[in-house]
Fold these 4 entries.
Entry 1:
Amino acid sequence: MAARVGSAAALAFFRARLRVAGSPARAAAQRAYLKSDLRFLGATMPQTRTAVAEFCRAHPDLTRADLRAIAEAAYATDSHDLRSAAIGVLERRVALLTGRDLGWLIDLVRRSNSWAYVDWLSLGVIGEVIAQDRPSLRRLPVWARDESFWVRRASLLAQHDTLKAGAGDFALFARLADGMLDEREFFIRKAIGWVLREVSKKRPVLVFRFLREHRERVSRLTLQEGAKYLSPSQRRALGLPA
């Protein structure tokens, strides 16, 4: 049986691995791209995922409490790479999490303050928990009214993967999106369009009807993103080039 690992040892593992993998030039570029005040080691996403996989293989007996402790320890630092690695561990061991962890997970979203962490948490962790605990969908309307636009973005993205696969509750997504159409926040407008775009690949009629119904309120960004894969006739009906 593998030895239990504490959060300090976990962070030490990732710090060592990702420092070797990173580069100062890439760290500076990442920091500028994300407009972040955090410290960066300059590891790539594939390198981070490789380190996460190695860590999880070495510690197959991680518990729910371990996951939460590692994430909390990472978020207590000012390290982009450690936060990313912690989210990677949550994603890789998401089966250990349940609906009762969603309040804590959305608090991580609130503390993330960057799409780089919010989107990963929303799709790879929160979305997976909700997919396995459908009653948890009732939390999304609450999050959609949160004062933090990152939490509101998470409410939209939480169903991204299930909706993309042709499942999920599109009516719920449409209701939440409708309530945010008048927002000027880029990350909200982009999230609505992103989900609509993915849904349109399998269910274009749903997306076309939504955009047509809300044509006068939907932002240009949301419209262009959401209608990207609609048919020429549908795009023309929305006032877009075929």
Entry 2:
Amino acid sequence: SPLSVTQFIIDTTAPTVEEETAVTTPSNDTTPRYTFSSNEAGTISYGGSCSSSDNSSSVGNNSIDFNTLDEGSYSNCTIRVTDSAGNTSSPPLSVNTFIIDTTAPTVSSTSPTDNQSSVSVSDNISVTFSESMDNTSVTTNTSNTTCSGSLQLSSDSFSTCVQMSSSPSSSDNLTFTVTPSLKMFYSATYKIRVTTTAEDSAGNNIASQYTQTDGFKTTITIPTTAGSAHSCFMLDNGSVKC
């Protein structure tokens, strides 16, 4: 009698893999997660600078955690899936370019600067950071004179703080500017403080609170109108009435 050959399947179709959830960037997570989908189960292989202990894929979405990566930018990571018939997805799936940032930001400069004198009582207050910040973390007090928010200004060692007219503004997420709701006092010393609740765009908080050492001093000169016979005096809000 004829020999019956066992049923077999010829599969020459490679798996199809697609990105589902990109790696968050920038991030301070050194073992970032990536999610891709595959239309076949199989074995995962990695290329470029990335590797993982997650080596098996299933049909549908697959979330993988890359092995620990150093701080830096990654643009060459790839993923392939090989099915049980030996077909490998091609071209390899390119993981999105991502940045790992584990460095805490610092305050690079302030305006007015520490030890600056003769500062106008109507000047704005600015702080520049060493790297791009999460603008939702750079906040200030706009309601009263309590010392709240990550960007503060005080003339009494932060027992109270100057109320600002609005939230900090920035065009580049590096330099943030606030405007006091009332003019500062004449001939007064103010200090700028940035608390550790401020964080960069990767989620790193400032390592230690920043406070100006000596602060800045506002101008002593009270403006008067030339030839005026009126006397001038300072109001509680720092403005001058003649």
Entry 3:
Amino acid sequence: MRKILIIGIGAGNPDYVTVQAINALNQVDVFFIPDKGTDKVELGRLRKDICERFIEGSDYRLVPVPIPERAAAGTSYRGSVDEWHARLAHDYEGLFTQELGEGECGAFLVWGDPTLYDSTLRIIEHIRAKGFALEYDVIPGISSVQALAAQHRVALNRIGEPVLITTGRKLAEGFPNNLDSVVVMLDGDQAFKRVAGEDLDIYWGAYLGTEDEILVAGKLSEVMGDIERIRREARDEKGWIMDTYLLRRRDED
């Protein structure tokens, strides 16, 4: 039976790749490398660099996987995501049939951790649900959330208190009244501007773990403009950006 490994490779620094992930890399016959166009070619290169650094042999194959753009959400965000997942599942199944022989092991190298705001696991389950014979395992990785907290040297939660991990789309609805600490991912619209009236600190990071890492921290209302400018300039220069941030209510004096 064909097997797929969904390997978390950390948030950008090759040193974030775990021993478990290295052992998994050395089991793989075929790596399926997402191709998201010229703007994100660097992400593909980083995946290839990890293979060259940690795999002992050279008899593995790299297969590019064109990733279609997801349609605009319109009136149904969930509907657009489900449609996108179905398209990817169809494409992946075709690639597995063509590129992965019976008894061979394929892999996806997932940025950060495969269980946190990543679609690969759901797409593989979609393929299996259609009756395609496939085994799979998931190898955890160091997420951008962990890297952000470590680089800012800040705990994600206050003592005895919860922390919420959410998206920019959800934050745009407002900062939760009953929480002190909120981590925000997938925020292409800089939703922190919507909550600038709250008394919050922000710990922001982009390209975490890479040589291009950028960190900004401070009172949200005071550093918000700097983050907008830095983010815009970085994206213009590189063609893409990955950023994450922690918002926290300020301590009462």
Entry 4:
Amino acid sequence: MFSRCVFTFLCLHLIVSRAGALFGYGLIRCQFNSVHDAVYLEQLYFNKVFLGQFNSSVMRFDGYTNYTKGIANLLNKNPVFIKQEKKNVLKCTSHVANLLDSLSKTVIKPYVRLTLTEVKGSSHSHMLVCSVYSFYPRDITVTWLQDGEVVTDDVTTTGTLSNGNWLYQIHTHLDFTPKFGQKFTCKVEHASFKKPRLYEWNPMSQSDREKMAVGTAGMALGSVFLAVGVIYYLCNKNDRQLVPGG
């Protein structure tokens, strides 16, 4: 039915149009926020002009040009057309129900990262950031713990942000001044976890990692100098000429 409707509208404009280039197309949309809030649309365009559309929220076809208003009036009085559109609306809502049911059973585990940054012009010298990426469904709880106790002061959060691809992310910040023996934990609760996940950070472990990185870099640099020295020695050895005694 929709294809015949498209053909009728486009043929009409093909006959009456004086434009040099002719291009027409139709779109079918099933837009929804929930099963009970789905809208079925059939839209027609010709040479970038919006000719008209069927909208399930009003259950009629509306024409937006002088040529299509009359045809839209005829379609809306046609019981066969209305019956077919009702079937299309039911297909739309049934597909939405199936999609939402499938998504409700889908869970994607988040990727969590802790980062430490220095803060200037604040009462605290540092800020810990707990970033939680690429999770589904949307509902999630992120909590800061200090030595096992919940921290609420000096904590800010971005709220849950959409990635635009059905996945979400959230970032929570904790301002603090490092002290010896402190242990901070980012606690993440999500449907993809059987139990809350704990991601720990403490100043000593951070310092140890930095020392290890410096030591590793030193060893790598030493290896480079050693390799250069060996190559230089071998090259000079091959270039030497033995001089026989007199």
